[in-house]
Amino acid sequence: MTIEEVLAKNEKQIFDRKSIQIKPVDLSDTICAFANADGGTIAIGISDKHRRI
Question: Fewest CB atoms less than 10 Å from the CB: which of 7, 47, 49, 51?
Fold first, then answer.
């Protein structure tokens, strides 16, 4: 996946963006949710609201 695709993709059940500022304990919730579902992709280092790298 290119950076352009990551920035353009909408967040949903199988894709999530997380800021580089996220605490590991907060990231674990997303990882567990994806593990309990059909998997997914987490893009770390891109803010949710502004989609800034």
Answer: 49
Beta-carbon count within 10 A of 51 CB: 13
Q: Which two tokens mark 3?
A: 């950076």
The residue written with tokens 């674990």 in the block is 28
Helix (H) or strand (E) holding 41: strand 41-44
Q: Amino acid identity of 8? A: A
Q: What is the pLDDT along the chain (53 residues), one digit of tens a residue?
A: 888 888 888 888 889 999 888 898 989 988 998 999 888 999 999 877 777 78
Nearest Cα residue to 15 out of 23, 24, 7:
7
- The whole-model pTM stands at 0.74
